[in-house]
């Protein structure tokens, strides 16, 4: 299994880290069988699995519920679990308690936190000190979508780009083991990747990052209709599944399913005599 020092070694040797999200037992099993380096139990589960409009309604309980299923499905893979909206913003005590609960109950290898505010940085360093590895997340941080004013590329001005570089360095200094960069111009992501000694994992941040992460349901086109520009779908599950389900429904209606081979039988004489 991956660990902090192997991750650093991969960065030094320019071996890219392949990460994908997973939210349940089957997706975790398939991701592990595909040899991904890391699995993220993202709070994106709020959107792709639970049908919310954003990640904001996702709770600590949701993350634990899905995180447990993922670690059961991918026992030999490094699993990172997102801390959800506001679970690390009320106070340092609250953040540490929530982090500890998610980490212990899910049996994950690390947690991920968005942003680089004072409390977030303190939480990263205190969790790390307590033995919980932390992954940072900058650029488009979906838990702050309403502060950012929508899902859009971040760091497009000199001020915001400078801030992001400073934030990235502060996250590394706080002890984070890796940093996710979401929707960041390639040139800025490259610059951050070169300045940090921990690996950057990009999503919509170009090929210069030390790794890539995508959402499981996007990669497989599974239940999602519109894909962001940065996604490459490797399969169209929507089409395959829709057609399989329609065929099933038709065969039930047409009495073409079940067939003999799907059916259990006993000898007629074993059936009870029911009279009158
Ligand atoms: O929740 C998620 O899926 C994420 C990735 C997009 C990085 O945070
Ligand atoms: Na997330």
From TrEMBL:
Stated EC number for the protein is: 2.1.2.11
Q: Which InterPro entries match?
A: Pantoate_hydroxy_MeTrfase, Pyrv/PenolPyrv_kinase-like_dom, Pyrv_kinase-like_dom_sf
One example of the protein's molecular function in GO is: 3-methyl-2-oxobutanoate hydroxymethyltransferase activity
Could you tell me which CDD domains the record lists for this protein? KPHMT-like (cd06557)
Write the record's keywords in alphabetical order, separated by commas. Cytoplasm, Magnesium, Metal-binding, Pantothenate biosynthesis, Transferase
**Highest rank taxon of the organism:** Bacteria
Q: Which SUPFAM superfamilies match?
A: Phosphoenolpyruvate/pyruvate domain (SSF51621)
Which region is the signal sequence? none
Q: Which cofactor does it need?
A: Mg(2+)
State the compartments where it is located: Cytoplasm
Q: Where does Mg(2+) bind?
A: 43, 82, 114
> Where on this chain does 3-methyl-2-oxobutanoate bind?
43-44, 82, 112
Per the Swiss-Prot or TrEMBL record, the active site comprises 182
Name the enzyme's class.
transferase
- Quick one: which pathway? Cofactor biosynthesis; (R)-pantothenate biosynthesis; (R)-pantoate from 3-methyl-2-oxobutanoate: step 1/2
- Provide the cofactor note recorded for this chain's UniProt entry: Binds 1 Mg(2+) ion per subunit.
Pfam families given in the database record: Pantoate_transf
Q: Which reaction does it catalyse?
A: (6R)-5,10-methylene-5,6,7,8-tetrahydrofolate + 3-methyl-2-oxobutanoate + H2O = 2-dehydropantoate + (6S)-5,6,7,8-tetrahydrofolate
Listed HAMAP family: PanB (MF_00156)
Name the family: Belongs to the PanB family.
Self-association state and partner proteins as the record states: Homodecamer; pentamer of dimers.
Q: Which function does this protein serve?
A: Catalyzes the reversible reaction in which hydroxymethyl group from 5,10-methylenetetrahydrofolate is transferred onto alpha-ketoisovalerate to form ketopantoate.
| Name this polypeptide is given | 3-methyl-2-oxobutanoate hydroxymethyltransferase
Q: What is the source species? A: Thalassobacillus hwangdonensis
Gene that this sequence comes from: panB
